[in-house]
Each structure stands twice: as structure tokens, then as C-alpha cells.
Amino acid sequence: MSRQKGIFLVITGALFWGIGGTVSKKLFQDFEVSVDWLVTSRLLIAGLLLLTVQFFRKDRSQILDVWKNRRTAIQLIIFGLLGMLAVQYTYMASIHHGNAAVATLLQYLAPVMIIIYLIFRKQAVLTRRDLVTVSLALVGCFFLLTNGSLTQLSVPTPAIIWGVLSGVALAFYTLYAIPLLKEYDSLVIVGWAMIIGSFALSFVHPPWQMDFASLPVEAYLYLLFVIIFGTMIAFWFYIESLQSLQAKESSLLGSTEPLAAVFTTVFWLKDPFGTFQWLGTTCIILMILLVALSKDSSSKTCKISKNEKPLKIS
Predict the structure, then answer these.
(1) What's the CA gap between 116 and 110, in Å, rounded?
(2) Is the pLDDT of residue 300 over 70?
(3) Integer distance in angstroms from the first to the last C-alpha of the chain?
């Protein structure tokens, strides 16, 4: 896959992810859909759809082959629980307690976490470009979250906690997927990870426990968008981009997600937005352009070797 295609995939997936977050907030506040039910249902349906797409491709045998190797099967289960499910649940919980803009901004502490982890593992050297991109991301997130205030945050504490945890989960999700993608198609990995996450959460809130008759047609349209575009396509495109981009590049370019969440939150849900928040938006756009226009795609910086053991969380 070309670098340009990877950039297109990660940005498109991130846009759908951001818009899907705002639509999810609409479901939470206007139709009283629970976080547990939405996460369980969207993962189950999107996962089945992804595996169905894989079934009609040449490598359909991979759908079952991934379970024949004990090592990859264990890795897939870990990825499904600590990667896919963790990203989805923490993100949605942050949206529920705050809004989509706050949740996505906090989630994009992930690039900083990835860079620090890779430097700690001595797989990366901190470069000047890293410092600039990380600084733009952090400054942008600060302005967007605080509107320039140094003394207070107008964000509920649970939203902040869940948002930071979402950043940790996204960093793990990005790094842990790479060894699996070297052996199997992204559709197989993402599809099974979604089903695994849905199966685990169904013990908390089964997807069939829902008063479907009480939902209007508008709610079903929102659900359809969240499942197809905000989940299936978003996760597929994001993880597919890792085959041609470095982990930190995918994570940084994925910062188009908070931009999508901010714009839809402001112009669709009519949430207020201040001058410094628009300044933060500008910082993130500059950071995205810096990453996208970089020609340092073959650098050893932050490369993940083929034989590297995947990250483990104790």
C-alpha cells in the first residue's frame, strides 16, 4: 500500500469516527440509549459485517486460520479485550459524561503515549519533528479543552478520567495490532476483535435487552450510521493504514477525529465554542499537515520490527 493511500484511509476513518461520536451523544441525550448496549451492539454487528466482507475476498481461509495458531489466538483475544473493547467503551463513556469533542481530544493523548513508550523501549529517537508535532497536538488539545483558561476546566471529572483511559487504550490498540497485521488481513483482525469485545460486554448488557419499539425511525438511522461508518469503516480504515504508515503517524493523523467531533458538536448539537478553541483547532490542523507532508516515511524512527514481541499490559 502506498503512503498516500494510508494517509487517506486514516484521515477518512478518523472523520467517520469523530462524527460517529457526536451521533452517539445524540443517542445518549435524546433517546436514552445506554453506553453498554450501544458498545455491545455496534461491535457485534460491525464485526460480523467485516468478517462477511472478508469471506467474499480471496483470503477467506484466514477467518478460521487465525484461531489455529495458539500464539496468534491469544494475541487476538488480548487485542479484542484490551484494545478494541477498551477503546470503544472508554471513548463512549467519556462522551456520555461530557461530549464528543472532549472525549476525542482526551483520546488523542495517544500519540504522546506511543512516542514515550517507543523511546523508553529504545525503538525510537526523539526528533525535532516529534517535538513540534507533539507540541502542536498538546497545545491544540489544551486550547480546545479549556478555551485558554489556566485555572479551571468546564468538563466533568468522569469525562476526563474516561477520556484519558481512552487515550491509553488507543495507544495500546495502535501498537499491539502491528504484529497481527503482518500475518493476517486487517478485516480478519478487526472483525474478530469486535466480536470478542462484544461477547465479553454482553455479559454486562446483552444486545437483545432493549426496548426497540420505543425508538423512532430517526434513532435507527443514527444507529445505522454509528455502526456502519462510525465503527466498521472507521476501525477498518484506521488499522489498515498501519500497513503503510508508522504507528505514531497513524495516531497523529487520526487527530482529524477531534476536528470532526468539534465541528459536528458546535454546528449540529449547538454546543458553545470559544476563540481559543478555534485556535486549538488550527494547531491540530497544522500538526496534521506536518505529518501528512513529511517525506520521512522510510526512517527507522519509531519503526516496529517484524520480530518484535507485542506490548503486554499487566
Answers:
(1) 10
(2) no
(3) 34
